[in-house]
Amino acid sequence: MQSLLLPALLPQLLLTIAEPVLNKIISLDPDAAGRLQKLQGRQLAVELTDVKLRLVFTAQANGIWLDQHQEKVDCAVIT
Q: What is the pTM of this model?
């Protein structure tokens, strides 16, 4: 049973690790906060059909949130 859960939880684990790294990189740009403010609340989904993975990037004033969901987004890229 545990071996079946790990693959299902792996994308969320990767997002949990990637989000603070991405936000640290964004924080190095002094103009990023202003640009993110304009995009606050907007969502971009990237769907990788070969691996059946959908990543959702949500712009916030202080960075980007990473998540997975199937709800409607502002823009979607499907590969």
A: 0.83
